[in-house]
């Protein structure tokens, strides 16, 4: 199972690719070219990112939380 940092990097990379894909779709639409296959690819990419986000959330929830402790010798107000 990949670690949390790997999943985060993959999400970031995929989001950048999706932005490029959206720009490319707009260019194709302006040129009057059909964009059905490009839009299908974009929807698959969005589904992949959603699954990666769910995986990231599961990995994040599985990590032990850092205990919030009081500072030694700290004042109580």
Summarize the structure.
This protein is mainly alpha-helical and 77 residues long. It has two helices and no strands.
Account of the protein in words:
With 77 residues, the chain is mostly helical. The protein has one domain. Helix content is 71%, strand content 0%. α1 (4-31) runs antiparallel to α2. The radius of gyration is 21 Å and the shape is elongated. The model has no long low-confidence stretch (mean pLDDT 90).
Write out key terms for the chains shown:
0% strand, mainly alpha, elongated, single chain, 77 residues, coiled coil, 71% helix
Tell me how many strands there are.
Answer: 0
> Span from first to last CA?
46 Å
What fraction of residues sit in β-strands? under 5%
Radius of gyration: 21 Å
Could you tell me the mean pLDDT?
A: 90
Q: Give the overall shape.
A: elongated
Helical content (DSSP H or I, runs of 4+): over 70%
Main β-sheet description = none
Q: Which spans have pLDDT < 50 for at least 5 consecutive residues?
A: none
Total count of domains: 1
Helix-strand category: mainly alpha
Number of contiguous helices: 2
**SSE string, helices as H and strands as E:** HH
Keywords: Coiled coil
Coiled coil: 4-62
């Amino acid at each position: 199972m990949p670690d949390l940092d790997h999943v985060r990097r993959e999400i970031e990379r995929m989001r950048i690719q999706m932005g490029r894909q959206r720009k490319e779709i707009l260019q194709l639409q302006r040129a009057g070219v059909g964009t059905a296959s490009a839009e299908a690819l974009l929807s698959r990419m969005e589904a992949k990112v959603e699954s990666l986000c769910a995986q990231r959330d599961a990995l994040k929830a599985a990590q032990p939380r850092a205990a919030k402790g009081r500072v030694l010798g700290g004042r109580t107000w």
